[in-house]
Please model this.
Amino acid sequence: MSVNEGKELRIIGFLCNWCSYAGADTAGVGRFAQPTDLRIVRLPCTGRINPLFIVRAFMNGADGVLVSGCHPRDCHYSEGNFYARRRLEVLKALLPVLGVDPGRFEYTWVSASEGQRWRSVVTSFTEQVHALGPMPGFKSGTSLDMCLCHMDQNQVL
Amino acid sequence: MASSIDDLKSAIKEALPDLDMVIAWTAGPDPLSHTPLFITDEADIERIAWDPRCSQNLAGYLTGLRGKKVGVVAKGCDARSIVELLQEKLIDREDVTIFGLHCTGAVDARTTRKALGSSRGVEDVAIDGATARFTVAGEAKTLPLGETLQQKCFTCTGADAEVCDHFIGEHGLPPQVGERPASTLEELEAMSMEERLHFWEDQMTRCIRCYACRSACPLCVCQDHCAAQSREPHWVDQTDHPREKLMFQAIHALHTAGRCTECGECERACPMGLPIMTLKQALNRSIQDLFDYRAGTDPDQAPPLFEFREEEKNIKEREW
Ligand code: SF4
Ligand code: SF4
Ligand code: SF4
Model:
């Protein structure tokens, strides 16, 4: 069902349990067609997100990272997303100095009832990442290759 | 500076009986950078050195000496680190006595050694206007400031220790640098994203993972609990891949975001001369734009990532 004709990229979504994860579920229950590039990691709150999760995802070969949580003032824990907003905004300054295109990372707010909105966020973000193409790797091998190569070495077959 | 060093010595002599120790600088093995001096005895006071070779930020010792009455000598940038430590309640104001100085700029031992051809025989260094004057084996030599100062001095926001108990000497302006080399951040900004990634890959290939950058940072206070060595979660693996070393630099930059005063110790301490303060400069610039905040200026402010506003003035979120 991919809108990108089988050429999937690796996009990681960090979703808050209370709003956006449920919002994505609503989109699924409503059978809204959406791109399938996104792999979701469910977290208790966007306040739990360490900006290093996102850096680590890029270092390990992600082509894009999306963070989504409850709208400001709707946080289950009152202020988690307020802290997250500051941290993620600051992270935006670090990624481009490291060589990660700022278009590969976005954060947004989607509530549990906004299935339609979730669909449009995922679709626009996926298109945005596809426009940039795969994340350039290190010269000494892409990050993903390096990870796979470690796995091979460590696996007893 | 001759008069201010005498004033500094007498101020320390007067304060020492009420303190457990005073931290200052003294001539060390490297002729281009002075080394810390821990004064507990009046006789040590004579060994104090104060000139542009006093580059080390002595604030880094304060958290480890918490609970003791400590005096510390500080340049403008060092005093900003002390203010940041006070803001974070990592040290206690009543236990620290700050001897503030006016700084004319600190020499970068690495670039200066290159510009002079060698550091052998350097006996004296003074900065006077836009020139650095050296006495090398009895002979006078000069260099323009652009070839000798540390990166941080090119963008110094105040060469006087603003917060201090005793100010010694006269107040003045930061060094008046004429021509200066482009900063790494400026060079990076002219590159494509992919070139930037490869720039860091090349730099990190040279990193030996000694963590001197971390040990020298006055704000790295986690000690044995550093994320770089934690196994659970395993933030960085033990391989020699530049990716892991860059990951560590991202950890250091993000853990000092909104706290880093650009004291330059991380870069100065790096034995491989890696331009790692660049990442922190980029974050600081964005923190200034977003929160109108500069670390180390006001002891009563909280660092911006320690708090939030429901309505953020300068954050414009993405509309989908
Ligand atoms: S940054 Fe300013 S106070 Fe610090 S060493 Fe340079 S000139 Fe002196
Ligand atoms: S990160 Fe570097 S420049 Fe910033 S406070 Fe630490 S040592 Fe100083
Ligand atoms: S001080 Fe330099 S070589 Fe050592 S870990 Fe830090 S960046 Fe790497």
Q: What stands out?
A: The first strand of chain A starts at residue 11 and ends at 16. The beta strands of chain A are 11-16, 38-43, 64-69, 105-109. The radius of gyration of chain A is 16 Å.
